[in-house]
Design a protein that fits this description.
Length: 392
């Protein structure tokens, strides 16, 4: 028994996204990658903006003592200050550099936040469907995952949330724009969330935090609006990154923001800086921290994701798929035409279309399409989606 029991179990139940990735690699070998339609991974395919490339080259060519050395665990002041300004302008609340910690992606930020806040067996509520990795981010730090439902429109079901909150609830994770649904929370959703969490914290004499997981906050289409969760609820901490909106997923750069209105904001900042160190991140990548101030507020060409969303949504609904229209991110979460979503994604797989079952996101009866693939691939895939739909 070399491997810890918990890890052995986790690996055995390996994520569906990974499973589809492996299945895809085999199919591609067999049929040629141009004949396999791989919608399984959320790995952004659009190029990072030219300004990023230029800033990277400029910053990489500088040299001076300690340029590649250790730094404060929270990150460079020169990076945290402009990030704080950005958060201030999004929220209307005055952030300083001491409300910002640069992190190893949104995943790093979430682990730091869980480590900072959770006592053993504290409860963390997530809304199904949810990003499957949340399970591990919670159990990594001794927390218990509690799942609340979403409505038919795939937005948080506030009545169900109310039932799930207990004296042990410490964190409610929200994710907008959402992976896997692409839905963007409305102002009303935030208001209702804030109302219930304020009421329940008072009733139980506890502190309940909102953890806003927001790596897709800049990928929003049409007239949908990004609302900063800081505006609605004081005990809010946000985890985000440049993985998706700048296509920098492999560079592992993100940040967490602590609301200045948070009870104990200073203490949380100190504790989270400590956890950044002791979790072994020490600090976020230095070169990326120097590049980010030059490209803050910029994104990849979002219109390309919108074009794909429009085309895919129109074509699939014409076939008969039922889908809550995504307003952001690069995912779509159609209902499976048969109750058994795993059976259906296997039918799609037989047609060389790779998707991920809703079961993998805690929401059976659906499947996820990730459209980080060229438009040509999407166009060619439609007849396959149609064939699978007619086969059932
Ligand atoms: C909802 C959600 N949260 C967090 C992450 C992790 O993002 P990062 O690569 O910035 O760590 C992802 C990545 O796919 C995601 O989809």
């Amino acid at each position: 028994m070399t491997i810890a029991k918990e890890i052995r179990e986790s690996i055995k139940n390996a994520s569906w996204i990974r499973r589809m990735f492996i299945a895809g690699a085999e199919l591609k070998k067999q049929y040629g990658s141009e004949n396999v339609f791989d919608f399984s991974l959320g790995n952004p395919d659009l190029m990072a903006p030219q300004a990023f490339q230029e800033a990277l080259v400029r910053e990489a060519s500088i040299n001076r003592p300690f340029l590649h050395g250790y730094m404060p665990n929270a990150g460079y002041m020169e990076t945290r200050e402009p990030v704080a300004q950005l958060l201030s302008s999004e929220s209307g609340i005055n952030f300083t550099a001491n409300h910002v910690i640069m992190t190893v992606g949104a995943a790093g930020a979430m682990n730091i936040i869980m480590k900072t806040l959770l006592n053993p067996r504290d409860e963390v509520i997530v809304f199904a469907p949810y990003f499957a990795e949340y399970t591990f981010y919670i159990t990594n730090h001794g927390g218990i995952k509690v799942v609340a439902d979403t409505t038919d429109e795939l937005l948080p079901d506030i009545a169900d949330l109310e039932k799930k909150i207990t004296t042990k609830t410490k964190i409610v994770v929200i994710n907008s724009p959402n992976n896997p649904t692409g839905r963007v929370y409305t102002q009303k959703t935030y208001e209702k969330l804030a109302e219930i969490l304020t009421r329940k914290s008072r009733e139980f004499g506890s502190q309940i935090f909102i953890l806003g997981d927001e790596p897709y906050k800049n990928i929003i289409f049409d007239d949908s609006i990004y609302y900063s969760p800081f505006k609605f609820y004081r005990n809010t901490i946000v985890a985000t990154s440049f993985s998706k909106d700048l296509s920098l997923a492999g560079e592992r750069i993100g940040y967490m923001g602590i609301s200045p209105e948070c009870e104990d904001a200073d203490e949380i900042f100190q504790a989270a800086s400590f956890c950044t160190r002791t979790l072994g991140f020490v600090n976020a990548p230095a070169l990326m921290q120097r590049v980010i101030p030059h490209v803050l507020g910029q994104t990849v060409d979002i219109s390309q994701y919108k074009e794909r969303r429009d085309f895919l949504f129109d074509e699939l609904t014409k076939i008969g798929y039922r889908i809550a229209r995504p307003e952001g991110a690069f995912y779509m979460f159609p209902q499976s035409p048969i109750a058994d979503d795993i059976k259906f994604i296997n039918i799609l797989k037989d047609n060389l279309v790779l998707t991920t079952p809703g079961t993998g996101f805690g929401k059976p009866g659906y499947f996820r399409i990730s459209f980080c693939v060229p438009m040509k691939t999407i166009e060619k895939s439609i007849e396959k989606f149609k064939k699978a739909f007619l086969e059932i």
